[in-house]
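Can you please make up a whole protein chain along with its backbone structure tokens because I've never seen that pairing?
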Amino acid sequence: MKRYIAILFLTIFIFSSTEAHQLLRIPYVFTHFAEHQRQNTHLSFFAFLDLHYMHGSPKDRDYEEDMKLPFKTADKCQSGQPTIFLLPVLFTKVIKPLEIRTEVNNIYNVCFFDSGYHSGVWQPPKFC
């Protein structure tokens, strides 16, 4: 039973908010084609569709009858479904921030060389 109710509501929604209700006019295509075929026996169904749908809507003697065909007029159907955005509720736990202690250890090289020692490299050997 739920399935049939869902199909009913879906059908009502589609026919009221889209141009699908134009499909209910399809039987009129065949009756209008029969009228045109009485006037011109050599008119094929595809030529009839070409005449009525591919060349706009010229104002001829049966203009009002042509406008009864499906998808010839827009019935200005509008769909106005409200859009609701539900934001998720986020629970956050506030934690006491951690204190990070950093100790600065300055490591110096204890072995310092006298600058005179380095200048001795460029002197001639003294043991000769």
The first helix runs from residue 2 to 17. The chain has a mean pLDDT of 77.
